Amino acid sequence: MASVTRQMLDAYPKSINLDRAKLAAVIDTINSCAQACTACADACLSEEDVAELTKCVRTDLDCADVCTTTARVLSRHEGYDANVTRSVLEACVAACRACGDECARHAEMHEHCRICADVCRECEKACRDLLAAMS
Amino acid sequence: MASVTRQMLDAYPKSINLDRAKLAAVIDTINSCAQACTACADACLSEEDVAELTKCVRTDLDCADVCTTTARVLSRHEGYDANVTRSVLEACVAACRACGDECARHAEMHEHCRICADVCRECEKACRDLLAAMS
Amino acid sequence: MASVTRQMLDAYPKSINLDRAKLAAVIDTINSCAQACTACADACLSEEDVAELTKCVRTDLDCADVCTTTARVLSRHEGYDANVTRSVLEACVAACRACGDECARHAEMHEHCRICADVCRECEKACRDLLAAMS
Amino acid sequence: MASVTRQMLDAYPKSINLDRAKLAAVIDTINSCAQACTACADACLSEEDVAELTKCVRTDLDCADVCTTTARVLSRHEGYDANVTRSVLEACVAACRACGDECARHAEMHEHCRICADVCRECEKACRDLLAAMS
């Protein structure tokens, strides 16, 4: 069944510049990344070696916030402004790269970091692809 | 395949009071509701009869914010405080009920309101069930 | 000079049930609390005894999210729903109490926890007073 | 008296690359902008000519979300990553410019748009100055 994101995009009453199926998939990927980062920050806090993971918690928190905002901006089509969308996507790329890099450093020790790193890489790629499709 | 939420909960290193599969499903439902409400607010702004939909936009925005916060609180297990979780879930029930009621009033006119009303009802029920499971 | 919150409330075009000066003061207090909690979480991550502060980080993050959402809900007057406002304020009271209690435990060791505890207490009181004024 | 933001920055236990007084002022300006935009979106929804203000609501919502995330990223110093901070600030500049431009179009009709436009201009400038100070 189509995700709620896709169903809502299909019900949007006006035209949208981007392909709706593709856009829905990007938003779902970004929302999953926000969720992974929020969960990874908390899992890091629960680890005995939390003192080695403070940078990871920080990049998780940034990435969760940036992804949440990016998904919201991408879900609004009324009064669309390409400059805002593009710069928000670029911030999302930067946050996902930083978080993916940091989580990857702990991926062998902590499964939550491994999953989060993978999700961040996927989200970074999805945002880059959308940026390419916009230009 | 298990959702990212579920994968991250399965990778959480300590014990969690609630059933992980059930908790993951509730978080996914809440995140979908946040997404539906953000999209519905924007779709309402795009309708010609937007003047009839201003209350709907408002309840959508509240519900999106409350759901986003609720999903985050439910995704943190370190230093768990049942009072905070319970009161946040109760706020989510109230926001989903208000938004579901308002969207239902426009469901015949606007497909995005129909979908959003259904998602809000489902989310309200999921939060009520989790509250019941906690006590 | 009046805060931006107060200026915007004075420019609101319709009637508001609550006293505008009082409401503006509560919103400003809640926004300050969100800021203090975000900063305290990061300061805790920077401490050498971070392993003793993981619950504090968690309550900070919850409180920041709940306060941000509460300030947003209180800033919306179109289509006002007292049930939503009340339940969100109650969640804010619970989050501020939990965070104030936890920060107070570290107040002698860490100045950021002392400040954050004070701000949480003030925010909890402001939310309780607003709840009393609503009934 | 120093703002809570400033007090918390002064209590931060490690070094910070930027001047603390200047950084606190920028964060306070960004938080005020988030508040103005949330309030302006709601005030627009309350206007009789809401159909003329739908783009304004949208840019307000984007700007509120981007500012909230930017203030959070700027409030975290542990594991600082200049690339993330810079790209988030650039997104904030873009969101403030779009919202300031749109609100300015309605400033003569609506006092809330006039105030919000001014606050967005101030916030855009503060973010640009911080970007300049970082390089």
TrEMBL record, chains A, B, C, D:
CDD domains: DUF326. It holds the Pfam family Csp. Gene3D superfamilies: 1.20.1270.360. InterPro entries: Csp_YhjQ (IPR005560), YHJQ-like (IPR044543). This is Four-helix bundle copper-binding protein. It comes from Micromonospora musae.
